[in-house]
Amino acid sequence: MTSLQSPISNLVVLISGHGSNLQALLDACASGELQARVVAVISNNADAFGLERARRANVPAIHRLKLPIQSRRAYDADLAGLVASYHPEWIVLAGWMRLLTSAFLDRFPNRVVNLHPALPGTFPGTHAVERAFEAYRRGEVTHAGIMVHLVPDEGVDSGPVLAQEVVPIHPDDTLEYLEARMHAVEHRLLVAAMKQLVNTRSPIADLR
Ligand code: GRF
User: What per-residue confidence (pLDDT) applies to 207?
Assistant: First the structure.
């Protein structure tokens, strides 16, 4: 990895929407808290506000639409080529809402990081916060959580965990209150996990 020669790691961030976690990374890079720079932001959704956040930070903001005639693997192979052209040390899935196939993942072994609003082994897939909140109301869980993990394969929201944090659910919570607290934890945990990766530069295989 080129990161071994450079004190600053290059990040490519994949998004689909609001981009508040992207913003946390941009801010941490700008303040020097994170020894990294976001070299490109790619969205599968043209309307993603995260693209505007990237433009405001003078970072290339790229929309990559999946065409209906394109297979998932063809899209992912094309996406991998685009990402590779920015020479990232790390690829961060920060609210990226497409499952990636091995056509993408095999190009970047141990270098794809995902943020998911649930603890390991719980609520994989979409609407994780809503599902945790409903489970709490049914008395099935006492808390929600956040994790940051590597994406070694096509498993959904699974892979070696880099950081995790419990988020309590309160009796008087609404889904909106819970989501707001979840986002605040996400922003902090994602930056902390990326700091660990960027600063230690330890072989990621050791984290498995
Ligand atoms: C986050 O909750 C993330 O965990 C989930 O999608 C959301 C993205 O939020 N996968 P944002 O676009 O970073 O604001």
Answer: 42
3-state secondary structure of 126: coil
Q: What whole-number distance in Å separates Cα of residue 205 and Cα of residue 6?
A: 21
What tokens were used for 66? 């999946």
Atom of ligand 1 nearest to the CA of 129: 2
pLDDT higher than 90, residue 134: yes
Query: Torsion angle of alpha carbons 145, 175, 195, 92, nearest 10°?
Result: 100
Coil, strand or helix at 186: helix
Contact 16, 44 (CB under 8 A): yes
Write out pLDDT tens, residues 21-32. 999 999 999 999
Query: What CATH homologous superfamily does 9-116+146-166+185-202 map to?
Result: Formyl transferase, N-terminal domain (3.40.50.170)
Q: How far apart are CA 78 and CA 100, in angstroms?
A: 12
Q: Relative to the CA of 16, which ligand 1 atom is closest? A: 12
E strand map for 71-173: 90-93, 112-116, 143-150, 161-168
Q: Say if residues 62 and 86 touch (Cβ distance below 8 Å).
A: no
For residue 59, the CA-to-ligand 1 centroid distance in Å is 19
Question: 109: which residues sit within 8 A by CB, 6+ positions away?
Answer: 152
Phi, psi of 83 (to 5 degrees): -60, -45
Return the axis-axis angle of helices 20-31 and 175-200, rounded to nearest 10°.
Answer: 40
Please determine, for residue 202, whether its predicted confidence score (pLDDT) is greater than 80: no
